[in-house]
Design brief:
Length: about 60
């Protein structure tokens, strides 16, 4: 599994994931509550399956 998420993209995914999970735990958002796990996981693992399908890569090439 090659990394395809990097830089600002990774930071934004982690922040959005945390915010959505916190909103879910406080009861602020309804049905979309656990969707925050997806951006958090893709940010932490540096891999997005959708990016792989679309051929997108935001990591710097080494």
């Amino acid at each position: 599994m090659n990394s395809n998420v990097g830089g600002i993209d990774k930071i934004l995914r982690i922040l959005v994931g945390i915010v959505l999970i916190v909103l879910a735990l406080t009861g602020t958002i309804g049905l979309w509550r656990w969707i925050g796990v997806l951006p958090l996981a893709t940010g932490l693992f540096n891999f997005c399956p959708a990016y792989k399908l679309l051929g997108v890569n935001t990591c710097k090439v080494k």
